[in-house]
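User: Need the bound-state model for pyridoxal-5'-phosphate:
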Amino acid sequence: MLNINEIRKQFPVLDQQVYGKPLVYLDNAATTQKPLCVIERERDYYLYENCNIHRGVHYLSQKATEAYEHARQTVADFIHAKEAREIIFTRGTTESLNLLATSFEHFLLSTLNSQLTTDSKLSTDGEPVEPLNSQLKVLVTSMEHHSNLVPWQQMVQRHHGQLLVVPMDDKGVLDLEQFEKLLKEGPKVVSIAHISNVLGTINPVKEMIAMAHQYGIPVVVDGAQSIAHHPIDVQDLDCDFFVFSGHKMYAPMGIGGLYGKAEWLEKLPPYQFGGEMVDTVSFEKTTFNVLPYKFEAGTPNVGAALGLETAVQFLQKLDRKEVEKHESQLLQSAIEKLSDIDGIRFIGEAEHRSGLVSFIIDGIHPYDLGTIIDKMGVAVRTGHHCAEPVMTRFGIPGTVRASFALYNTMEEVEVFVNAVKKAAMMLR
Ligand code: PLP
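Assistant: Bound-state model below.
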């Protein structure tokens, strides 16, 4: 059993009043709060260990380098990567996805161009072959966060390629038959959310990865909403890439990761250029460093990486199954209690879902509802949650979203639901 009271003591930020009411923090899908151990780890780094890494021969530099590389190993173990060099530290999910979209852009174009020089430009019947750039297709789903949509969209649009989109049903469940059909259209990359940040749907990524691999297509999993809440095993999933943000898993802001299978990371070209990622440099030519440094140009956020390691260790000390169970109970209780509100419509009703609930209430703008319950101490998120196409799909301007973390309690669910009920009465 989780001892929630003990856990909450590690999160001083939760123990405060806003507008004279105890804070009920239910905006965990946006960012989680940080436990004392994480804050102290980052602080201690700056108090006693701060140094630039990899380059110094002196004591502090070596100590900081060791600590940074230890953090990489801890993250690798946490998601069961085969090797630490398969973990690239980034600023977070968004940067990881931009890295992949940019790197794949260069990789795919050079592959397609080399085909152009070797393949005949004319088909056997003398007609020009399909322009190679039109083969530049990327497959995403209709429930992606903008971070897993815009980088790919911009990448294909720069080359007159195409973004293929897997549709979903009214409950927020992906259509796997359509997914299979779209795979046959020959996307070069598939990039899918593990868990939707709007709908809470847990996508069947393992099955989707196996399907994509039958067509030889690599798969990126956006794990921004899954890593804090469910155990992740990248080898079991067999994903080619897995991206995540530290700040959504109790770690500091400004740090996150990109896992990639070594054979893919070896093939892909670097994303940013500068110090650290090079091997030799002359005015004529540069050769690049080995993994993972090839993808880590410039001075990294060492303090935050150590904070991320501590957040991982914090999670590892807990029974993750109990965490899943606790968050699922919070969710079930919230859904049950909200259900008797007149005119409520849940957005996202998949059978397999994670700890967040999105909804609208007839005749009430989500923003108004969010503003009123904020005055009652309840922090939820309102709006399109950086997933405008999801709003368009459901024909709504936005939702109210409450998202749970391991430190939330049943009492908080009660306070939240009562606040929503009260606000709905006031706004009608
Ligand atoms: N992907 C998903 C599913 C998300 O929920 C988020 C953030 O909410 C992101 C990507 C972007 O994460 P970040 O802003 O930490 O880069």
